[in-house]
């Protein structure tokens, strides 16, 4: 089991938020010393979903609210012994990565955030797995309200646009973007504003009647 | 490994085509005598995709052109011993199910087509798996040209509408449907017509520049 966890982070003091993911440095062979996706082994009395949550908590301390099965990777030569890896992917919101809760674990230097678009050579087939997860994220941001998985409960239109820009890897026109999301009917304006160095910006929230991502019959089952 | 194979069939001499799938009668415990999805075990030196194709051919004789990983099912109690099943799904076109090639195998009475909307109680969690596959099919028919996976190379608009009606489980207005698909730009009219008891109907084909279903980076890898 491995998990690709995406968050929006400002890395190395950069201006623009990037899609980032935490990686774990391997402490044993194969691939000792290389960076790899957080993960672990499925226990005999544990469902796949439960194993994904547990291995993620054990390796990174993170407990994302959005965690979904991505794909089973089973190429014969992906590992020295035959290993089929059932990979999950997760989105984690900025307010779920409080410095208090998470950074101590990360301070071990064996867990670190990386820019998803500029990864080193990872262990096993993990570069390929991240590429596939990024493709799924880009795809899904078009037809579901999955961007919410990377945002706090209330956000400005500029926050939302930043998520889309980071995922799609290109700048979006602010006026067009505002028109499109206002027409989509998925956002509810609140009567609160964010104030600060810029002029006050209205805070929005997502319409909770719409699921984050429709998983169909599996939503009820798991 | 198990596979859900969807085809469009006229069952029991019914008028309307239905989404149907072949099931295999189990000849041993657990669930001896019950119907189950075709499948088998992963070999040690075989990729997941290869195992899905092989087990499908061995159990049903079918070799669908569209075969894609669906989901890994791993509930602890889904089988008497702990078994994680990596499930594939396939679409098979009417012209891939020639009576010559396939029906002899089916004549063993241990393989049979069933209406996907009216299944008996299946072995293991296979009803749940079929429900999930049907949900994925309905979902995907909206935003990709996956309906093609159930059609011959050339088809009339009535053929195409029949596929959509069978998948969505409701009648569609012929004039609206024609306008929508003509506006979608995915169909190319040929200069051939189907003649018969009705007035001649133009044959169309799909624009092959568009992938049947975009699988992203995995298209290149597998």
Automatic annotation (TrEMBL), chains A, B:
Query: Which range is the signal sequence, renumbered to this chain?
Result: none
- Cross-referenced InterPro entries, in alphabetical order? NUDIX_hydrolase-like_dom_sf, NUDIX_hydrolase_dom, WH-like_DNA-bd_sf, WH_DNA-bd_sf, WHD_NrtR
Q: Which keywords annotate this record? A: Hydrolase
Any single GO molecular-function term of the entry would be: hydrolase activity
Which named protein is this? Answer: NUDIX hydrolase
Judging by the UniProt lineage, the source's domain of life is Bacteria
Q: In this protein, which residues make up the domain named Nudix hydrolase?
A: 1-138
Pfam families to which the protein is assigned, alphabetical: NUDIX, WHD_NrtR
């Amino acid at each position: 089991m491995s998990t690709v966890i995406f968050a929006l982070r400002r890395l190395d003091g950069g201006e623009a938020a990037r899609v980032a993911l935490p990686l774990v440095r391997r402490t044993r062979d194969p691939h000792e010393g290389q960076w790899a996706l957080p993960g672990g082994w499925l226990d005999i009395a544990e469902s796949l979903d439960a194993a994904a949550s547990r291995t993620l908590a054990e390796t990174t301390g993170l407990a994302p609210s959005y965690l979904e099965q991505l794909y089973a990777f089973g190429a014969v030569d992906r590992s020295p012994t035959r290993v089929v890896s059932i990979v999950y992917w997760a989105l984690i919101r900025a307010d779920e990565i409080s410095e208090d809760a998470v950074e101590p674990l990360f301070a071990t230097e064996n867990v670190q955030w990386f820019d998803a678009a500029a990864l080193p050579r990872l262990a096993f087939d993990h570069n390929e797995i991240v590429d596939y997860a990024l493709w799924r994220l880009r795809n899904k941001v078009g037809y579901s309200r999955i961007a919410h998985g990377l945002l706090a409960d209330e956000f400005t239109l500029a926050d939302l646009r930043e998520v889309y820009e980071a995922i799609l890897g290109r700048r979006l026109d602010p006026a067009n973007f505002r028109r499109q999301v206002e027409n989509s009917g998925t956002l509810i304006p609140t009567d609160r504003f964010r104030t600060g160095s810029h002029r006050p910006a209205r805070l929005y929230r997502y319409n909770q009647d719409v699921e984050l991502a429709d998983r169909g019959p599996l939503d009820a089952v798991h």
